[in-house]
Amino acid sequence: MSLTETDLLPGTRRALTHRLATGQVHGRAPSVVAAVVRGGRPVWVEGRGSVDGAVPDGDVQYRIGSITKAFVAVLVLRLRAEGLLSLADPLGEHLPGTAADQATVADLLAHTSGLAAETPGPWWERTPGALRPALADLLGEPAQVHRPGERHHYSNPGYALLGALVERIRGQAWDEVLRREVLAPLGMTRTTLLPVAPHAAGWAVHPWADVLLPEPAVDAGRMAPAGQLWSTAADLARFAAFLIDGDERVLDAEAVAEMRAPACPPEAAQWDSGYGLGLQLLRRDGRLLAGHTGSMPGFLATVWTSAEDDLGAVVVGNSTAGLPVGALAADLLAAVAEREPRIPAPWRPLPTVDPHLLELAGPWYWGPVLWVLRPLADGFLELTPMSEGQRGTRLRPTGDGGWTGLNGYFAGEPLRVERDPTGAVSHLDLGTHIFTRQPYHPARSVPGGVEEAGWRVP
């Protein structure tokens, strides 16, 4: 049997099966299903345990809890992409009258709104949403436990408000908007607000005996955007592929990369974890993972992706606690990355040659420090320092002859190409950092000037 570029080797598949099997046994989970994504498609899907007397497969639904938040974040970023809101807008500008009027949309996405973590009692995850019929019922006193933007404080009601924001702007229930704008384009036909057979039942496992207790599966009502969705390992594998590469029908790759970028500082003792725009971030064994964990009574789920490795991993199970789905998904992803490291795409020349970009390519000096500027196949630029310990930046064209930095120190900073009276490139100005073709070129606009005597021997 021949293997394609995305197929897994038999030894890797056995390692994945072994890790899943030991995870299910040690976690004492009634059932668990996992998937690994590579090259934009699932390359391994397997279940353990039993649902309705059979081993579950990638088509069996499980409740995915807070992974729902990542979907809501996608809907909000779509509104931003259409110019219907800015992430800097106060929520009250679009959804007035809540306790979060002064928090920005970005604050809510990144859990820096300062809102309370939970609704007033009784606990929303085990009680019907009908107990909280209005937005005003989602927050008690104090509704604000920190100043907006002060710190990361996970807030379930905050995402309920984002769901309401989507409904206000779209004029339609958030789950219907989700189905039409995200799920349908991505082919996620088995992701729904309420369970659709075949689906697993939610169970609590006794801490000291191998017996089960059924958990309630209530409709969370207005709190649904915080954790209501049901999905399958196969559907979440499609979502993982989207979180790696984006999809022009939903959100482009640049917007998805923005979701994966840290949007708030982590707690002082948690420098290996953080939060982006609707996505949790985790640094594990030197690998940056982005995705989300989820839990609801009777269910646990995780989606992790590593864009650098072009890998994603999904784990869903039907146990309230005990099954370490986050660690399990990270282990599955790492098993493939370590046994079968990503093979880079073949080098190819640029599809077209832009003389203006070619004119910029090559060495540039910031003071005495050498940098190299390269045009990329996607029309962007890459500016890379040749000194160790420094990181470069990618630059996106702004359409007016300029560029904007996308990452690192120069993220968001403008790059201007300055020319002399003859039209030749004189120097580059990147956020007031002047780059010249020679170190401290005397004829260029180096801040502070350059001594006329030039270089010397002391």
UniProtKB/TrEMBL annotation:
InterPro entries noted in UniProt:
Beta-lactam-related (IPR001466), Beta-lactam/transpept-like (IPR012338), Diverse_Enzym_Activities (IPR050789), DUF7586 (IPR056008)
Q: Mind telling me what this protein is named?
A: Serine hydrolase
Extract one GO molecular function annotation from the record. Answer: hydrolase activity
All copies of the DUF7586 domain together span 353-437
What are the protein's UniProt keywords?
Hydrolase
Q: Which Pfam families match?
A: Beta-lactamase (PF00144), DUF7586 (PF24491)
> What Gene3D superfamilies does its record include?
DD-peptidase/beta-lactamase superfamily
Q: Where is the Beta-lactamase-related domain?
A: 24-337
